[in-house]
Protein backbone atom coordinates (compact mmCIF):
# COMPACT_ATOMS: atom_id res chain seq x y z
CA UNK A 1 0.00 0.00 0.00
CA UNK A 2 1.43 3.36 -1.04
CA UNK A 3 1.82 5.91 1.72
CA UNK A 4 -0.39 8.97 1.30
CA UNK A 5 0.92 11.54 3.74
CA UNK A 6 -1.59 14.28 2.92
CA UNK A 7 -4.48 11.87 3.49
CA UNK A 8 -2.81 10.65 6.64
CA UNK A 9 -2.15 14.16 7.95
CA UNK A 10 -5.69 15.32 7.34
CA UNK A 11 -7.00 12.24 9.11
CA UNK A 12 -4.78 13.02 12.10
CA UNK A 13 -5.99 16.64 12.11
CA UNK A 14 -9.60 15.51 12.14
CA UNK A 15 -8.94 13.06 14.95
CA UNK A 16 -7.21 15.75 17.01
CA UNK A 17 -10.11 18.13 16.54
CA UNK A 18 -12.68 15.53 17.56
CA UNK A 19 -10.78 13.79 20.34
CA UNK A 20 -8.87 16.66 21.93
CA UNK A 21 -10.25 20.01 20.87
CA UNK A 22 -13.99 19.31 20.85
CA UNK A 23 -14.26 18.27 24.53
CA UNK A 24 -12.43 21.44 25.53
CA UNK A 25 -14.70 23.86 23.71
CA UNK A 26 -16.84 26.06 25.94
CA UNK A 27 -20.20 24.27 26.24
CA UNK A 28 -21.92 27.68 26.31
CA UNK A 29 -20.55 28.61 22.91
CA UNK A 30 -22.78 26.84 20.36
CA UNK A 31 -21.22 28.74 17.47
CA UNK A 32 -17.82 27.31 18.35
CA UNK A 33 -19.25 23.79 18.49
CA UNK A 34 -21.07 24.26 15.20
CA UNK A 35 -18.00 25.62 13.47
CA UNK A 36 -15.78 22.88 14.81
CA UNK A 37 -18.03 20.30 13.18
CA UNK A 38 -18.10 22.33 9.96
CA UNK A 39 -14.31 22.39 9.94
CA UNK A 40 -14.17 18.63 10.46
CA UNK A 41 -16.68 18.07 7.68
CA UNK A 42 -14.71 20.25 5.29
CA UNK A 43 -11.44 18.52 6.12
CA UNK A 44 -13.15 15.18 5.51
CA UNK A 45 -14.29 16.43 2.11
CA UNK A 46 -10.80 17.58 1.17
CA UNK A 47 -9.33 14.31 2.47
CA UNK A 48 -11.64 12.31 0.26
CA UNK A 49 -10.87 14.41 -2.82
CA UNK A 50 -7.12 15.14 -2.72
CA UNK A 51 -6.21 12.34 -5.11
CA UNK A 52 -8.81 13.53 -7.61
CA UNK A 53 -8.09 17.24 -7.81
CA UNK A 54 -5.93 16.95 -10.93
CA UNK A 55 -8.55 14.75 -12.65
CA UNK A 56 -11.25 17.28 -11.85
CA UNK A 57 -9.28 20.27 -13.15
CA UNK A 58 -8.47 18.39 -16.33
CA UNK A 59 -12.11 17.40 -16.76
CA UNK A 60 -13.21 20.99 -16.19
CA UNK A 61 -10.81 22.20 -18.88
CA UNK A 62 -12.03 19.51 -21.28
CA UNK A 63 -15.62 20.55 -20.52
CA UNK A 64 -14.98 24.17 -21.47
CA UNK A 65 -12.98 23.15 -24.53
CA UNK A 66 -15.90 21.02 -25.68
CA UNK A 67 -18.19 24.00 -25.14
CA UNK A 68 -15.85 26.22 -27.16
CA UNK A 69 -15.64 23.62 -29.92
CA UNK A 70 -19.43 23.45 -30.07
CA UNK A 71 -19.56 27.24 -30.43
CA UNK A 72 -17.07 26.96 -33.27
CA UNK A 73 -14.07 28.98 -34.44
CA UNK A 74 -13.99 32.63 -35.51
CA UNK A 75 -16.93 33.70 -33.37
CA UNK A 76 -14.74 35.43 -30.79
CA UNK A 77 -11.03 36.25 -30.95
CA UNK A 78 -10.69 35.85 -27.18
CA UNK A 79 -12.39 32.47 -27.32
CA UNK A 80 -10.20 31.27 -30.19
CA UNK A 81 -7.07 32.23 -28.22
CA UNK A 82 -8.35 30.68 -25.00
CA UNK A 83 -9.24 27.46 -26.83
CA UNK A 84 -5.76 27.23 -28.34
CA UNK A 85 -4.16 27.81 -24.95
CA UNK A 86 -6.51 25.28 -23.40
CA UNK A 87 -5.57 22.62 -25.94
CA UNK A 88 -1.88 23.26 -25.28
CA UNK A 89 -2.40 22.88 -21.53
CA UNK A 90 -4.39 19.72 -22.07
CA UNK A 91 -1.73 18.29 -24.35
CA UNK A 92 1.05 19.03 -21.90
CA UNK A 93 1.54 15.86 -19.87
CA UNK A 94 3.48 17.87 -17.29
CA UNK A 95 0.72 20.44 -16.74
CA UNK A 96 -0.21 20.48 -13.08
CA UNK A 97 -3.36 21.64 -11.38
CA UNK A 98 -2.70 25.37 -11.65
CA UNK A 99 -2.12 25.63 -15.44
CA UNK A 100 -5.16 23.42 -16.06
CA UNK A 101 -7.30 25.56 -13.75
CA UNK A 102 -6.05 28.81 -15.30
CA UNK A 103 -6.74 27.57 -18.81
CA UNK A 104 -10.26 26.51 -17.87
CA UNK A 105 -10.90 29.87 -16.19
CA UNK A 106 -9.71 31.69 -19.30
CA UNK A 107 -12.10 29.67 -21.44
CA UNK A 108 -14.97 30.24 -19.03
CA UNK A 109 -14.20 33.96 -19.12
CA UNK A 110 -14.12 34.07 -22.92
CA UNK A 111 -17.34 32.09 -23.24
CA UNK A 112 -19.07 34.28 -20.65
CA UNK A 113 -17.97 37.45 -22.38
CA UNK A 114 -19.23 36.10 -25.70
CA UNK A 115 -22.65 35.30 -24.22
CA UNK A 116 -22.82 38.73 -22.57
CA UNK A 117 -21.94 40.45 -25.84
CA UNK A 118 -24.54 38.43 -27.73
CA UNK A 119 -27.15 39.58 -25.21
CA UNK A 120 -26.71 43.20 -26.29
CA UNK A 121 -29.54 44.66 -28.39
CA UNK A 122 -27.37 45.10 -31.50
CA UNK A 123 -26.03 41.51 -31.50
CA UNK A 124 -26.96 38.82 -34.03
CA UNK A 125 -30.08 37.13 -32.55
CA UNK A 126 -29.55 33.88 -34.46
CA UNK A 127 -25.97 33.54 -33.24
CA UNK A 128 -27.08 34.45 -29.73
CA UNK A 129 -29.74 31.75 -29.75
CA UNK A 130 -27.30 29.14 -31.07
CA UNK A 131 -24.57 29.94 -28.55
CA UNK A 132 -27.02 30.01 -25.65
CA UNK A 133 -28.31 26.55 -26.56
CA UNK A 134 -24.75 25.25 -26.84
CA UNK A 135 -23.91 26.56 -23.36
CA UNK A 136 -27.05 25.13 -21.79
CA UNK A 137 -26.62 21.75 -23.45
CA UNK A 138 -22.94 21.46 -22.63
CA UNK A 139 -23.27 22.48 -18.98
CA UNK A 140 -24.71 19.21 -17.69
CA UNK A 141 -21.40 17.32 -17.72
CA UNK A 142 -19.82 19.56 -15.10
CA UNK A 143 -23.02 19.67 -13.03
CA UNK A 144 -22.93 15.89 -12.67
CA UNK A 145 -19.30 15.84 -11.61
CA UNK A 146 -19.72 18.67 -9.12
CA UNK A 147 -22.80 17.12 -7.55
CA UNK A 148 -20.79 14.01 -6.85
CA UNK A 149 -17.80 16.07 -5.71
CA UNK A 150 -19.76 18.01 -3.10
CA UNK A 151 -22.19 15.27 -2.15
CA UNK A 152 -20.65 14.67 1.31
CA UNK A 153 -21.63 18.21 2.35
CA UNK A 154 -25.22 17.05 2.48
CA UNK A 155 -27.14 19.55 0.35
CA UNK A 156 -28.37 17.31 -2.44
CA UNK A 157 -32.12 16.65 -2.26
CA UNK A 158 -31.71 13.62 -4.53
CA UNK A 159 -28.53 12.27 -3.00
CA UNK A 160 -29.50 8.65 -3.59
CA UNK A 161 -29.28 9.23 -7.32
CA UNK A 162 -25.71 10.55 -7.22
CA UNK A 163 -22.90 8.03 -7.63
CA UNK A 164 -19.31 8.20 -6.46
CA UNK A 165 -17.12 11.04 -7.63
CA UNK A 166 -14.79 8.54 -9.30
CA UNK A 167 -17.68 7.16 -11.32
CA UNK A 168 -18.88 10.67 -12.19
CA UNK A 169 -15.44 11.67 -13.44
CA UNK A 170 -15.13 8.48 -15.43
CA UNK A 171 -18.58 8.92 -16.97
CA UNK A 172 -17.95 12.57 -17.82
CA UNK A 173 -14.61 11.70 -19.40
CA UNK A 174 -16.27 9.04 -21.52
CA UNK A 175 -18.97 11.52 -22.57
CA UNK A 176 -16.37 14.08 -23.59
CA UNK A 177 -14.36 11.41 -25.43
CA UNK A 178 -17.43 10.61 -27.50
CA UNK A 179 -17.82 14.27 -28.47
CA UNK A 180 -20.99 16.30 -28.94
CA UNK A 181 -23.39 13.59 -30.06
CA UNK A 182 -27.10 14.30 -29.94
CA UNK A 183 -27.61 12.20 -26.84
CA UNK A 184 -24.66 13.68 -25.00
CA UNK A 185 -26.32 16.67 -23.43
CA UNK A 186 -29.91 15.56 -23.42
CA UNK A 187 -30.19 14.00 -19.98
CA UNK A 188 -31.65 16.31 -17.36
CA UNK A 189 -30.24 14.22 -14.56
CA UNK A 190 -31.09 14.52 -10.91
CA UNK A 191 -31.37 17.98 -9.47
CA UNK A 192 -33.91 18.96 -12.05
CA UNK A 193 -36.35 21.50 -10.72
CA UNK A 194 -39.59 20.21 -9.27
CA UNK A 195 -42.12 20.72 -11.99
CA UNK A 196 -44.96 23.16 -11.66
CA UNK A 197 -48.37 21.96 -12.79
CA UNK A 198 -49.50 23.41 -16.08
CA UNK B 1 -8.16 38.05 -7.39
CA UNK B 2 -9.41 39.32 -10.71
CA UNK B 3 -11.89 38.32 -13.36
CA UNK B 4 -11.13 39.98 -16.66
CA UNK B 5 -8.90 42.52 -14.97
CA UNK B 6 -11.40 43.66 -12.32
CA UNK B 7 -10.05 43.75 -8.76
CA UNK B 8 -13.11 42.87 -6.74
CA UNK B 9 -11.19 42.88 -3.48
CA UNK B 10 -10.51 46.60 -3.83
CA UNK B 11 -13.31 48.31 -5.75
CA UNK B 12 -12.71 51.93 -6.72
CA UNK B 13 -15.18 54.81 -6.52
CA UNK B 14 -15.39 54.70 -10.31
CA UNK B 15 -16.18 50.97 -10.36
CA UNK B 16 -18.88 51.45 -7.72
CA UNK B 17 -20.44 54.22 -9.80
CA UNK B 18 -20.31 51.94 -12.82
CA UNK B 19 -22.23 49.23 -10.95
CA UNK B 20 -24.89 51.76 -9.95
CA UNK B 21 -25.22 53.01 -13.49
CA UNK B 22 -25.46 49.58 -15.09
CA UNK B 23 -27.78 48.00 -12.55
CA UNK B 24 -30.26 50.49 -11.07
CA UNK B 25 -32.34 48.97 -8.29
CA UNK B 26 -34.24 49.96 -5.14
CA UNK B 27 -32.77 52.88 -3.17
CA UNK B 28 -32.22 50.93 0.05
CA UNK B 29 -30.59 48.06 -1.83
CA UNK B 30 -28.42 50.48 -3.75
CA UNK B 31 -27.23 52.15 -0.54
CA UNK B 32 -26.42 48.79 1.04
CA UNK B 33 -24.44 47.59 -1.96
CA UNK B 34 -22.48 50.84 -2.15
CA UNK B 35 -21.69 50.56 1.57
CA UNK B 36 -20.57 46.96 1.08
CA UNK B 37 -18.09 47.87 -1.65
CA UNK B 38 -16.83 50.99 0.10
CA UNK B 39 -15.90 48.85 3.11
CA UNK B 40 -14.58 45.82 1.24
CA UNK B 41 -10.91 46.74 1.34
CA UNK B 42 -11.15 47.21 5.11
CA UNK B 43 -9.96 44.73 7.72
CA UNK B 44 -11.40 41.23 8.16
CA UNK B 45 -14.07 40.48 10.71
CA UNK B 46 -12.82 40.10 14.26
CA UNK B 47 -15.00 37.96 16.47
CA UNK B 48 -16.80 40.19 18.92
CA UNK B 49 -16.84 38.88 22.49
CA UNK B 50 -20.08 38.41 24.37
CA UNK B 51 -19.00 41.11 26.82
CA UNK B 52 -18.37 43.57 24.01
CA UNK B 53 -21.79 43.00 22.49
CA UNK B 54 -23.33 43.26 25.94
CA UNK B 55 -21.62 46.63 26.42
CA UNK B 56 -23.17 47.79 23.14
CA UNK B 57 -26.60 46.74 24.42
CA UNK B 58 -26.08 48.65 27.66
CA UNK B 59 -24.98 51.76 25.81
CA UNK B 60 -28.07 51.61 23.61
CA UNK B 61 -30.43 51.06 26.53
CA UNK B 62 -28.80 53.84 28.57
CA UNK B 63 -29.67 56.24 25.74
CA UNK B 64 -33.10 54.89 24.85
CA UNK B 65 -34.82 53.37 27.90
CA UNK B 66 -36.50 55.19 30.74
CA UNK B 67 -35.31 54.35 34.27
CA UNK B 68 -32.91 51.64 35.31
CA UNK B 69 -32.28 48.42 33.44
CA UNK B 70 -30.21 45.24 33.69
CA UNK B 71 -28.91 42.98 30.93
CA UNK B 72 -28.22 39.35 31.82
CA UNK B 73 -28.07 35.78 30.52
CA UNK B 74 -26.30 36.69 27.28
CA UNK B 75 -25.89 33.66 25.00
CA UNK B 76 -24.93 33.03 21.39
CA UNK B 77 -27.39 31.60 18.91
CA UNK B 78 -26.52 29.59 15.84
CA UNK B 79 -28.61 28.68 12.85
CA UNK B 80 -28.30 31.76 10.68
CA UNK B 81 -25.83 31.88 7.85
CA UNK B 82 -25.47 35.60 7.53
CA UNK B 83 -26.11 37.43 10.83
CA UNK B 84 -24.63 37.42 14.33
CA UNK B 85 -27.27 36.61 16.94
CA UNK B 86 -27.10 36.99 20.71
CA UNK B 87 -29.92 36.20 23.13
CA UNK B 88 -30.23 38.06 26.46
CA UNK B 89 -32.66 39.02 29.21
CA UNK B 90 -33.56 42.64 29.81
CA UNK B 91 -35.05 43.87 33.06
CA UNK B 92 -36.46 47.37 32.60
CA UNK B 93 -39.27 49.82 33.38
CA UNK B 94 -41.85 49.33 30.65
CA UNK B 95 -44.12 52.41 30.67
CA UNK B 96 -47.12 50.12 30.00
CA UNK B 97 -46.34 47.07 32.16
CA UNK B 98 -44.11 48.48 34.88
CA UNK B 99 -40.96 46.63 35.88
CA UNK B 100 -40.57 43.82 33.31
CA UNK B 101 -38.23 41.04 32.32
CA UNK B 102 -38.06 40.27 28.60
CA UNK B 103 -36.08 37.68 26.73
CA UNK B 104 -34.70 39.39 23.64
CA UNK B 105 -32.40 38.81 20.67
CA UNK B 106 -29.97 41.12 18.97
CA UNK B 107 -29.30 40.44 15.30
CA UNK B 108 -26.28 42.19 13.85
CA UNK B 109 -24.44 42.20 10.53
CA UNK B 110 -20.85 40.95 10.33
CA UNK B 111 -18.32 43.12 8.45
CA UNK B 112 -19.63 41.73 5.17
CA UNK B 113 -22.45 39.28 4.86
CA UNK B 114 -23.74 36.61 2.51
CA UNK B 115 -26.57 39.06 1.87
CA UNK B 116 -26.19 42.82 2.00
CA UNK B 117 -29.62 43.42 3.49
CA UNK B 118 -31.36 46.05 5.55
CA UNK B 119 -32.08 45.92 9.27
CA UNK B 120 -34.39 48.90 8.74
CA UNK B 121 -36.54 46.84 6.39
CA UNK B 122 -36.70 43.98 8.84
CA UNK B 123 -37.72 46.38 11.61
CA UNK B 124 -40.46 48.03 9.54
CA UNK B 125 -41.86 44.74 8.28
CA UNK B 126 -41.90 43.06 11.67
CA UNK B 127 -43.82 46.06 13.00
CA UNK B 128 -46.18 46.01 10.04
CA UNK B 129 -46.98 42.31 10.42
CA UNK B 130 -47.39 42.36 14.21
CA UNK B 131 -50.91 41.01 14.71
CA UNK B 132 -51.19 39.83 11.10
CA UNK B 133 -48.77 36.93 11.30
CA UNK B 134 -46.87 35.34 14.15
CA UNK B 135 -43.71 37.47 14.18
CA UNK B 136 -41.31 38.46 16.95
CA UNK B 137 -42.15 41.79 18.58
CA UNK B 138 -39.50 44.34 17.61
CA UNK B 139 -37.77 46.12 20.45
CA UNK B 140 -35.17 48.41 18.93
CA UNK B 141 -33.10 49.32 15.91
CA UNK B 142 -29.59 50.62 15.41
CA UNK B 143 -29.77 51.34 11.67
CA UNK B 144 -26.29 52.75 11.16
CA UNK B 145 -24.18 51.22 13.90
CA UNK B 146 -24.46 54.04 16.46
CA UNK B 147 -24.19 51.71 19.45
CA UNK B 148 -23.10 48.48 17.76
CA UNK B 149 -20.15 47.90 15.43
CA UNK B 150 -22.62 47.21 12.62
CA UNK B 151 -26.35 47.79 12.02
CA UNK B 152 -28.43 45.78 14.49
CA UNK B 153 -32.03 44.86 15.20
CA UNK B 154 -33.49 43.88 18.58
CA UNK B 155 -36.60 41.74 18.93
CA UNK B 156 -38.35 39.42 21.34
CA UNK B 157 -37.08 35.89 21.74
CA UNK B 158 -39.69 33.34 20.66
CA UNK B 159 -39.72 29.79 21.98
CA UNK B 160 -39.78 27.15 19.28
CA UNK B 161 -37.70 25.06 16.91
CA UNK B 162 -36.99 25.29 13.20
CA UNK B 163 -36.81 21.52 12.72
CA UNK B 164 -37.83 18.46 14.69
CA UNK B 165 -35.52 17.60 17.57
CA UNK B 166 -33.07 14.94 16.48
CA UNK B 167 -33.77 15.41 12.77
CA UNK B 168 -30.73 14.70 10.67
CA UNK B 169 -32.01 16.80 7.78
CA UNK B 170 -32.08 20.60 7.70
CA UNK B 171 -28.82 21.04 9.60
CA UNK B 172 -27.74 24.00 7.51
CA UNK B 173 -30.29 26.77 7.92
CA UNK B 174 -33.17 24.31 7.71
CA UNK B 175 -32.52 23.38 4.08
CA UNK B 176 -34.22 20.12 3.15
CA UNK B 177 -35.88 19.59 6.53
CA UNK B 178 -37.95 16.41 6.74
CA UNK B 179 -40.73 17.12 9.25
CA UNK B 180 -42.30 13.66 8.98
CA UNK B 181 -45.97 12.96 8.16
CA UNK B 182 -47.54 14.07 11.46
CA UNK B 183 -45.90 17.47 11.71
CA UNK B 184 -46.30 17.97 7.97
CA UNK B 185 -50.06 17.67 8.38
CA UNK B 186 -50.15 20.31 11.11
CA UNK B 187 -47.65 22.76 9.67
CA UNK B 188 -48.62 22.78 5.98
CA UNK B 189 -52.03 24.51 6.33
CA UNK B 190 -50.54 27.27 8.49
CA UNK B 191 -47.61 27.66 6.12
CA UNK B 192 -49.97 28.25 3.20
CA UNK B 193 -52.31 30.51 5.14
CA UNK B 194 -49.40 32.65 6.31
CA UNK B 195 -47.97 32.97 2.82
CA UNK B 196 -51.37 34.08 1.57
CA UNK B 197 -51.56 36.68 4.36
CA UNK B 198 -48.16 38.09 3.38
CA UNK B 199 -49.21 38.46 -0.24
CA UNK B 200 -52.61 39.98 0.48
CA UNK B 201 -51.36 42.37 3.18
CA UNK B 202 -52.42 46.00 2.69
CA UNK B 203 -48.94 47.47 2.37
CA UNK B 204 -50.26 50.91 1.44
CA UNK B 205 -51.50 51.39 4.99
CA UNK B 206 -48.19 50.36 6.58
CA UNK B 207 -45.20 52.52 7.39
CA UNK B 208 -42.64 51.00 5.03
CA UNK B 209 -40.19 53.81 4.32
CA UNK B 210 -37.28 51.55 3.34
CA UNK B 211 -39.15 49.76 0.57
CA UNK B 212 -39.67 51.27 -2.88
CA UNK B 213 -43.03 50.72 -4.52
CA UNK B 214 -42.84 49.33 -8.06
CA UNK B 215 -45.68 50.16 -10.42
CA UNK B 216 -48.25 47.44 -11.01
CA UNK B 217 -48.77 46.61 -14.67
CA UNK B 218 -45.08 47.13 -15.46
CA UNK B 219 -41.87 45.08 -15.44
CA UNK B 220 -40.27 47.43 -12.91
CA UNK B 221 -40.28 45.00 -9.99
CA UNK B 222 -38.74 42.18 -12.01
CA UNK B 223 -36.07 44.50 -13.38
CA UNK B 224 -35.11 45.82 -9.94
CA UNK B 225 -34.69 42.30 -8.61
CA UNK B 226 -32.79 41.14 -11.68
CA UNK B 227 -30.50 44.16 -11.54
CA UNK B 228 -29.80 43.54 -7.89
CA UNK B 229 -28.74 39.96 -8.55
CA UNK B 230 -26.70 40.85 -11.65
CA UNK B 231 -24.99 43.65 -9.80
CA UNK B 232 -23.92 41.38 -6.95
CA UNK B 233 -22.66 38.80 -9.47
CA UNK B 234 -20.53 41.52 -11.04
CA UNK B 235 -19.34 42.80 -7.66
CA UNK B 236 -18.50 39.53 -5.94
CA UNK B 237 -17.64 36.70 -8.29
CA UNK B 238 -14.26 35.03 -8.70
CA UNK B 239 -15.42 32.54 -11.32
CA UNK B 240 -16.95 33.04 -14.73
CA UNK B 241 -19.84 30.76 -15.55
CA UNK B 242 -21.26 30.98 -19.07
CA UNK B 243 -24.60 29.51 -17.98
CA UNK B 244 -25.14 32.48 -15.66
CA UNK B 245 -24.75 34.84 -18.62
CA UNK B 246 -27.28 32.82 -20.61
CA UNK B 247 -29.68 33.12 -17.68
CA UNK B 248 -29.11 36.88 -17.43
CA UNK B 249 -29.75 37.30 -21.17
CA UNK B 250 -32.93 35.24 -21.00
CA UNK B 251 -34.28 37.11 -18.00
CA UNK B 252 -33.52 40.49 -19.55
CA UNK B 253 -35.53 39.44 -22.63
CA UNK B 254 -38.41 37.98 -20.62
CA UNK B 255 -39.16 40.36 -17.74
CA UNK B 256 -42.69 39.63 -16.50
CA UNK B 257 -45.28 42.27 -15.73
CA UNK B 258 -46.36 42.43 -12.09
CA UNK B 259 -50.16 42.26 -11.94
CA UNK B 260 -50.54 42.99 -8.22
CA UNK B 261 -47.84 44.48 -6.01
CA UNK B 262 -47.51 42.49 -2.78
CA UNK B 263 -45.21 42.29 0.16
CA UNK B 264 -42.71 39.60 -0.80
CA UNK B 265 -41.11 37.93 2.21
CA UNK B 266 -38.08 36.93 0.18
CA UNK B 267 -37.07 33.84 2.18
CA UNK B 268 -40.36 32.09 2.96
CA UNK B 269 -39.29 28.49 3.62
CA UNK B 270 -38.62 25.86 6.23
CA UNK B 271 -35.85 26.98 8.55
CA UNK B 272 -37.30 30.47 8.74
CA UNK B 273 -40.27 29.75 10.97
CA UNK B 274 -40.28 28.64 14.59
CA UNK B 275 -42.87 26.12 15.69
CA UNK B 276 -44.00 24.43 18.88
CA UNK B 277 -42.93 20.83 18.50
CA UNK B 278 -45.72 19.47 20.72
CA UNK B 279 -48.63 21.27 19.04
CA UNK B 280 -47.23 21.99 15.60
CA UNK B 281 -48.21 25.64 15.93
CA UNK B 282 -46.09 28.12 13.97
CA UNK B 283 -44.92 30.66 16.56
CA UNK B 284 -42.90 33.14 14.51
CA UNK B 285 -41.79 34.00 10.99
CA UNK B 286 -38.17 35.15 10.90
CA UNK B 287 -35.61 36.51 8.45
CA UNK B 288 -37.43 39.29 6.63
CA UNK B 289 -34.15 40.69 5.36
CA UNK B 290 -34.88 39.90 1.71
CA UNK B 291 -38.40 41.31 1.84
CA UNK B 292 -39.52 43.85 -0.72
CA UNK B 293 -42.60 45.12 -2.49
CA UNK B 294 -43.01 43.25 -5.73
CA UNK B 295 -44.31 40.13 -7.40
CA UNK B 296 -45.68 37.27 -5.27
CA UNK B 297 -44.30 34.80 -7.82
CA UNK B 298 -40.84 35.60 -6.46
CA UNK B 299 -41.92 34.01 -3.15
CA UNK B 300 -43.79 31.14 -4.80
CA UNK B 301 -40.76 30.25 -6.88
CA UNK B 302 -38.45 30.57 -3.88
CA UNK B 303 -40.57 28.40 -1.62
CA UNK B 304 -40.68 25.63 -4.22
CA UNK B 305 -36.90 25.74 -4.85
CA UNK B 306 -35.34 22.26 -4.94
CA UNK B 307 -32.82 22.92 -2.16
CA UNK B 308 -35.49 23.77 0.39
CA UNK B 309 -37.57 20.60 0.13
CA UNK B 310 -36.97 16.91 -0.25
CA UNK B 311 -38.25 13.86 -2.06
CA UNK B 312 -40.37 11.21 -0.36
CA UNK B 313 -39.10 7.75 0.52
CA UNK B 314 -40.18 4.25 -0.52
CA UNK B 315 -43.34 4.25 -2.61
CA UNK B 316 -43.44 8.02 -2.23
CA UNK B 317 -39.98 8.65 -3.63
CA UNK B 318 -41.22 10.42 -6.73
CA UNK B 319 -43.01 13.08 -4.69
CA UNK B 320 -41.21 16.35 -4.10
CA UNK B 321 -42.29 18.02 -0.84
CA UNK B 322 -42.18 21.82 -0.97
CA UNK B 323 -40.15 22.91 2.06
CA UNK B 324 -40.72 19.39 3.36
CA UNK B 325 -44.44 20.15 3.80
CA UNK B 326 -46.60 19.30 0.81
CA UNK B 327 -46.41 18.12 -2.80
CA UNK B 328 -45.69 20.85 -5.30
CA UNK B 329 -48.97 20.61 -7.23
CA UNK B 330 -50.98 20.67 -4.00
CA UNK B 331 -48.96 23.66 -2.86
CA UNK B 332 -50.03 25.82 -5.82
CA UNK B 333 -53.68 24.72 -5.66
CA UNK B 334 -54.02 25.45 -1.98
CA UNK B 335 -52.14 28.74 -2.28
CA UNK B 336 -54.65 29.93 -4.89
CA UNK B 337 -57.52 28.91 -2.62
CA UNK B 338 -56.03 30.64 0.42
CA UNK B 339 -54.94 33.86 -1.28
CA UNK B 340 -57.55 34.15 -4.05
CA UNK B 341 -54.60 35.16 -6.23
CA UNK B 342 -53.76 33.27 -9.39
CA UNK B 343 -50.50 31.48 -10.06
CA UNK B 344 -49.18 32.62 -13.45
CA UNK B 345 -46.84 29.91 -14.67
CA UNK B 346 -44.93 32.17 -17.03
CA UNK B 347 -44.20 34.60 -14.20
CA UNK B 348 -43.34 31.63 -12.02
CA UNK B 349 -40.87 30.37 -14.62
CA UNK B 350 -39.12 33.74 -14.70
CA UNK B 351 -38.79 33.90 -10.93
CA UNK B 352 -37.63 30.31 -10.68
CA UNK B 353 -34.81 31.19 -13.03
CA UNK B 354 -34.12 34.42 -11.15
CA UNK B 355 -34.06 32.59 -7.82
CA UNK B 356 -31.62 29.97 -9.09
CA UNK B 357 -29.49 32.79 -10.46
CA UNK B 358 -29.70 34.60 -7.12
CA UNK B 359 -28.71 31.51 -5.15
CA UNK B 360 -25.71 30.90 -7.39
CA UNK B 361 -24.74 34.55 -6.94
CA UNK B 362 -24.84 34.10 -3.16
CA UNK B 363 -23.29 30.65 -2.88
CA UNK B 364 -20.66 30.87 -5.61
CA UNK B 365 -19.80 34.56 -5.77
CA UNK B 366 -20.61 36.28 -2.47
CA UNK B 367 -19.80 33.35 -0.19
CA UNK B 368 -16.40 33.00 -1.86
CA UNK B 369 -15.63 36.70 -1.62
CA UNK B 370 -16.68 37.06 2.01
CA UNK B 371 -14.80 33.95 3.13
CA UNK B 372 -11.75 34.88 1.06
CA UNK B 373 -11.54 38.25 2.80
CA UNK B 374 -12.44 36.78 6.19
CA UNK B 375 -15.33 39.20 6.58
CA UNK B 376 -17.87 37.19 8.55
CA UNK B 377 -18.40 35.12 11.68
CA UNK B 378 -19.41 32.17 9.51
CA UNK B 379 -16.66 31.94 6.87
CA UNK B 380 -16.41 28.17 7.20
CA UNK B 381 -20.15 27.85 6.64
CA UNK B 382 -19.86 30.14 3.62
CA UNK B 383 -17.15 27.86 2.24
CA UNK B 384 -19.48 24.91 2.76
CA UNK B 385 -22.37 26.40 0.77
CA UNK B 386 -20.24 25.91 -2.35
CA UNK B 387 -21.81 22.45 -2.21
CA UNK B 388 -25.20 23.94 -3.13
CA UNK B 389 -23.93 25.35 -6.41
CA UNK B 390 -24.08 22.29 -8.71
CA UNK B 391 -27.58 21.44 -7.51
CA UNK B 392 -28.84 24.91 -8.32
CA UNK B 393 -26.88 25.14 -11.56
CA UNK B 394 -28.49 21.84 -12.57
CA UNK B 395 -31.91 23.29 -11.83
CA UNK B 396 -31.10 26.53 -13.63
CA UNK B 397 -29.90 24.62 -16.66
CA UNK B 398 -33.07 22.49 -16.76
CA UNK B 399 -35.27 25.58 -16.49
CA UNK B 400 -33.42 27.36 -19.27
CA UNK B 401 -33.55 24.29 -21.48
CA UNK B 402 -37.34 24.32 -21.20
CA UNK B 403 -37.49 27.95 -22.31
CA UNK B 404 -34.74 28.41 -24.92
Main pleated sheet of chain A:
none
Which of globular, elongated, flat, extended, rod-shaped describes the shape of chain A? elongated
| Helical content of chain B (DSSP H or I, runs of 4+) | 40-55%
Low-confidence stretches of chain A: 181-198
Please state the CA-atom Rg of chain A, rounded to the nearest Å.
21 Å
CATH class of chain B: Alpha Beta
* Secondary structure tally, helices of chain A: 8
* Percentage beta strand of chain B: 15-25%
Order of helices and strands of chain B: EEHHHEEEHEEHHHEEEEHEEEHHHH
Q: Using CB atoms under 8 Å apart, which protein chain pair has the greatest interface? A: A-B, 56 and 62 residues
Specify the biggest β-sheet of chain B. Answer: 5 strands, antiparallel
Strand content of chain A: under 5%
- Protein structure class of chain B: alpha+beta
Q: Under CATH, the topology of chain B is which?
A: Aminoglycoside 3'-phosphotransferase, Chain: A, domain 2
Brief sketch in words of this structure:
With 198 residues, chain A is mainly α. Helix content of chain A is 67%, strand content 0%.
Question: What does this protein structure show overall?
Answer:
The complex is a heterodimer of chains A (about 200) and B (about 400). Chain A is mainly alpha-helical. Chain A is built from eight helices and no strands. Chain A has a domain of about 130 residues. The termini of chain A are far apart. Chain B is of the alpha+beta class and about 400 residues long. Chain B has one domain: Aminoglycoside 3'-phosphotransferase, Chain: A, domain 2. In chain B, about 40% of the residues lie in helices and about 15% in strands. Chain B is built from twelve helices and 14 strands. Chain B has a five-stranded antiparallel β-sheet, with helices on both faces. In chain B, strands 12-13-14 form a three-stranded antiparallel β-sheet. A two-stranded antiparallel ribbon of chain B has the order 1-2. In chain B, a hairpin with a 2-residue loop joins strand 1 and strand 2. In chain B, helix 7 crosses helix 12. Classes of the chains: A mainly alpha (about 200), B alpha+beta (about 400).
Amino acid sequence: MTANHIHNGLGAAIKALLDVVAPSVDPDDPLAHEQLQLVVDYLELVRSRTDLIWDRERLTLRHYLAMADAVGPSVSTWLDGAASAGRRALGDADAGVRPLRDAAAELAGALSELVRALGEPDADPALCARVEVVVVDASQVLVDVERAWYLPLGFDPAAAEVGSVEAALQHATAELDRGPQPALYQGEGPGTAPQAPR
Amino acid sequence: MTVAGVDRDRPTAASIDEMRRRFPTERETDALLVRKLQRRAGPPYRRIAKDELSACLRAMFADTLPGTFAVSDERWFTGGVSKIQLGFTLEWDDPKRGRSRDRLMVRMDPSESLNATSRVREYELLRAFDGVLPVPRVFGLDPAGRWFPEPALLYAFVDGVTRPTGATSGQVSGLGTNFGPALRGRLAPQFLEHLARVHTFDHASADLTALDLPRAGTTESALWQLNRARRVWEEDRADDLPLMEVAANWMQRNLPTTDVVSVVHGDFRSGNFLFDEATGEIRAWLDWERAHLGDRHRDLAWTTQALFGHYGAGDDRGTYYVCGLLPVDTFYERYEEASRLVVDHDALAFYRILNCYQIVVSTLATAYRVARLGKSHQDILLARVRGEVPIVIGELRALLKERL
